[in-house]
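Duplicate of earlier report; Amidohydrolase input re-posted below.
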Amino acid sequence: MTAPTIDVHAHILLPEVEALVDGRPGHAEARALDARRNGPAALAVNGPMVRERIRVMTDVSARLAAMDAQGVDVQLVSPSPSHYHYWADEETAEKVYRLTNEATAGHCSAAPDRLRGLGLVPLQHPDAAVGALEHALEQGLSGIEISSHAPGRELSDPAYEPLWTRAEETGALVFLHPFGCTLDERLDQWYLSNSVGQPTENAVALSHLIFSGVLDRHPALNLIAAHGGGYLPTHIGRSDHAWSARSDAGAGCAHPPSSYLKRLYFDSLVHDPQVLRELVRVAGADRVLLGSDFPFDMGTDDPVGALRAARLPDADFHAVRGGNAAALLRKD
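Output:
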């Protein structure tokens, strides 16, 4: 039987979460930082762009109609990264993840044969992360979505070991999707904050997980990297060279960095068929999943067409189109 077409990179917008945090201590400062990082020109475009797409991110019938138009059978729905709110204190953070998890689960429950969901955990409060993961799974969600870092903490921080352990034990999916880039005002023109910032953040976060040995300690972690893993997969040779040439680079992980790409999953959203072919080559056709970034303008309206443009062998095409994701979702 042919596997369904599964898009693992699709978002939901939750206005109730933004209403919850509005006016809370730290919220205004976080918005100001986001504004500095993006720049005024980007913010002027972002507002209308999101407003045009609110319905398909909030209304299940509109989402399903859009999926039908794209030829997508199933979406793995993750909260808009704007809902992370890693600035929030512990009490507010708990309210955020509970509301987000419950609202996302409610949205997906309206079409359970076509929508699966991911929740959030407060990375800024590592001691609360396992509880948040458990809450997401209790709602029937398939796992969690995380950013590339939290303020003052990289994903290699030992404080996250309990989270990786529990995610591995439960088979939960962990979707790595950056929000914001710490290069700040260097990227505040021409939407460099996204076009350059997002793949940079992906590469940095994945490098922390690889070089620190997190993936040695948690080999069964089901981690999906958005945006094809950013710059790392196409430049992994430099990481391998550093690992073999320098004692400091090779101290934390047991194997060449390139070998860990075959332990990770990547979405197909790279906007270039040749880059997608290279991603399949270095990670393996069994480790790439269809992704669209639905419904944002930095995504693709035709994820299957973008995959077809890579001219993969037929078996690889169908694995990426849905076979790999179907197997992964059966494991969660």
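The chain has a mean pLDDT of 97.

Merging into the original ticket.
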